[in-house]
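Hi all, long-time lurker, first post. I run a small reading group and we've been trying to get comfortable going from sequence to structure in the token notation. Rather than ask abstract questions, I figured I'd post a concrete chain and ask someone more experienced to write out its structure so we can walk through it together at our next meeting. Sequence below, copied exactly:
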Amino acid sequence: MGINSIGMNGPQRRSINDAMVRLAQGDRAAFDAVFSGLWPGLLTFVRGAMPGHPDAEDLAQQTLLRIFFRISEFDVTRDGVAWAFGIAIYEVKTLRRKRFRRREVSAASAGEAAGTDRTPEDMLIESDLHRALRLSLGDLTDADRTVLRPDAAAPDTVSATAWRKRRQRAVDRLRAIWRSRHA
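-- Answer (accepted) --
Happy to help. Here is the structure in token form:
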């Protein structure tokens, strides 16, 4: 989604950029112009990046706060709108990572969430990674694949220490195969 697809034309962008430059240089009167210029586009962008997410408006507000807190870091020789949307992209990615780490998406709704949060590019990358992993696992010995299975348990004849060592060696061999193919 580009800037033009969220309804921002060239003159508007220049006006917002000029206001951001003034604000970064300490002109507090430019605050309203920056807010009113960025808010509609940021909200549209975040809603598009997080379709159906109940906290999209909160995330857009958080993004604006981050922009205002960091305005003193803004390089006035650069494009202010691009800088602001760069922050928005970062905030969206951060929220997605937090949700994934917290496992806020239940197993039952994982497919539904994957359809809303993942782009076709993400799904293609994931598919390629799965295929590459299957190929790499195929280059391992049967013993290594057995040791790497998540449900594999150490046989009674092997100590727990020896089993962990076998598993670590199998992981090291898998890592070496992966790197030789995909480095």
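A couple of things your group might point at:
The chain has two domains: 4-116, 119-182.
The CA atoms of residues 121 and 127 lie 10 Å apart.
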